[in-house]
Amino acid sequence: MKNTNRSILLGAAFLMATSAIGPGFLTQTTVFTEQLLASFGFVILISIIIDIGAQTNIWRIIAVSGKRAQDIANDVLPGLGYLLAILVVMGGLAFNIGNIAGAGLGTNVLFGISPKTGALLSCLLAIGIFVVKEAGKAMDRFAQILGFVMIALTIYVMITAQPPVGEAVVKTFAPDTIDIFAIVTLVGGTVGGYITFAGGHRLIDAGLTGKAAVPQVTRSSIYAIGIASLMRIILFLAVLGVVSQGLSLDPANPPASVFQLAAGNIGYKIFGVVMWAAAITSVVGAAYTSVSFIRTFSPFLDRNNRWLVIAFIVISTTVFVIVGQPVLILVLVGSLNGLILPIALGVMLVAAHKAKIVGDYKHPLWMTIFGIVIVIAMSWMGIYTLSNGIPQLFK
């Protein structure tokens, strides 16, 4: 039983982490590192603290209540769950179009086939995961294997880039500049929108709920942030190593140029593998989690959950193949995902103190205070981003 639980907890952690590590994750980390240099370490540090505070609160309440986020929200305020579901599904769909595009780009780098052909092949593979009988276990294993592959290959590129680690450590705690827009974008890209719920809802499906599961669930939530943050730090150092040598990144594809400049043609092929792995795991995570937000609204949706996930993947792929990659929409959704977090976390903190939702469970006071601080900080930073950062995109 312990081995089974360990496998479920690890699977949930990797599902959440690989959902976060997508094409947007790679691009954002590269672009912000190029702009902020070693000071981007401070942004990563602050985002990790916020990520842990948000995710541990959310996963604990989901596990204790045994309910998915939208049902908890409806219990807090009737109708709120439907609003949360709409926001998450819309963001998940927009992100998934970008994820499919990233999968197509990865196959293009690796095999020279067109991005659209690569996207279609990747779509078929993602669908195959949900066609098999043990879809949940297949999804867990898929996320774990590709998660390890991404991290290992990026470590190799980081080493070849020879980053100034000492400077990165110093600037992480004493930055030259503090970029609010970067913090909101990073938090939104790690625990915003559907991402933080990927692992929490996976635990519900696996039946790992109740007060007794809280210590394990808390550890799993921290592992998930740890995995995503490790990838972020490794990529940050790789980019920093390249730009510190005075090399210029290709604005058309910043992450690809980092891998190529650091490790030559081998590095470029490694980028193809990392991009494809990041994209396809995010396709799976986004589709599974987005659909999990609507499946409880009717018995019909619940019975046909698997086919809804497949339809979600097909729709995302079709939009990309017909329209192409909506870059501006993806950037906007990445930032707006950070605005969904204070809403979702705020709902969870209210739910944590309602006996009809959590029974006799007592949520730690320090976690509630930590969560409230994050809600206030992310709300303020999100409003600041809307009024200052996003308008810059349209100039």
From TrEMBL:
Keywords: Membrane, Transmembrane, Transmembrane helix
UniProt main location, coarse: membrane
Origin superkingdom: Bacteria
Record GO biological process: iron ion transmembrane transport
Molecular function GO labels: cadmium ion transmembrane transporter activity; manganese ion transmembrane transporter activity
Transmembrane helix among keywords: yes
Subcellular location: Membrane
Residue ranges crossing the lipid bilayer per the database entry: 36-54, 75-97, 109-130, 142-160, 180-200, 221-246, 266-294, 306-323, 329-352, 364-386
Keyword Cell membrane applies: no
Membrane topology, as annotated: Multi-pass membrane protein
One Gene Ontology CC term in the entry: plasma membrane
Alphabetical list of InterPro entries matching this protein: NRAMP_fam
Name of the protein in its database record: Divalent metal cation transporter
Originating species: Planococcus glaciei
